Amino acid sequence: MKWVAGLAFAAVVQAQSLSGVIDIHVHSDPDSVPRSIDAIDLARLAKSRGMRGLVLKNHYESTASLAYVVRKEVPGIEIFGGIDLNRTVGGINPAAVERMTMVKGGWGRLVWMPTFDAENQVRYSKENRPFVPVSRNGELLPEVREVIAVIAKHHLVLATGHSSPAEGLLLIREGRRQGVEHMVVTHAMLAPVRMSISEMREAASLGAYIEFVYNGLVGPNKMFELPEYAVAIRQVGPASVILSSDLGQPGNPLHPDGLEAFFAGLKRSSFTDSELDRMTKTNPARLLGLP
């Protein structure tokens, strides 16, 4: 528990500011790439800061089992997992999603369309390697529609991953057509997604939440200044926005610290406590189907 010594005082003085917050985008160990903290220690830290819940994300394997273990080790905080449909799980693989729903506890909740293996990501990065497509000629692939049917059947969350704006809107429209109850556009402003304000507003009008992540404002992945986020969030509207960390990278703040800085900056940008509560507590809870 290396976080304790460095953050004990911060935990004491800041615990109330994160009370009830749910972070839907959490990277942690164990992982196949370096991470700053493991899931159990992070859950303990988040709980000590008053947070309500975390969604554990791994680009290459399901975190449903990890969510079960963390809940057992750290009772008193709601932990969920999910699955990214990258090549390591077979890409757009309905069987993998169906199997995730069978993991003990039922804590696998999010289904991210391809992220680092997405066609949009590979093309954006100018890499020459296999990718996982979700559409062809402006139409979703049949297996994508099948995955969305599994999401609807099990009341899971459809997340757009690193899909292009056009693909993200196709996914959200199909989710709505099939009766998916919970949808989110993954870090909508961040590359390689880069949705415009009008595209974000269209996705929101179709019932999706629009995610803004602190990782886009700090460290090696920084792409924006906070005022740019503030303008976009205001135009989309807090009723349709979820704020999360997308942290866990070595050198970046730990998740609760990043969230604290994120919220403080938005408060300085004239967002009210009520609006922040909506984006950090109410909306994430609704996305996860929590009361």
Written overview of the protein:
The chain has helices spanning 3-14, 39-48, 64-73, 94-100, 119-124, 142-153, 165-177, 197-205, 226-236, 255-268, 273-287; strands at residues 22-26, 53-56, 78-84, 108-112, 135-136, 139-140, 157-159, 182-185, 209-213, 241-244. The protein is of the alpha/beta class. The strands form two sheets. The protein has an eight-stranded parallel sheet. Helix 9 links the parallel strand 9 and strand 10. The two termini are 31 Å apart.
Radius of gyration: 18 Å
Number of strands: 10
- Strands ordered across the widest β-sheet: 1-2-3-4-7-8-9-10
Choose one word for the global shape: globular
The fraction of residues assigned to DSSP E strands is 5-15%
Mean pLDDT: 95
Give the termini separation: 31 Å
- What about the largest sheet? 8 strands, parallel
Q: Which features would summarize this protein structure in a list?
A:
two-stranded antiparallel ribbon, eight-stranded parallel sheet, single chain, globular, alpha/beta, disordered N terminus, 291 residues
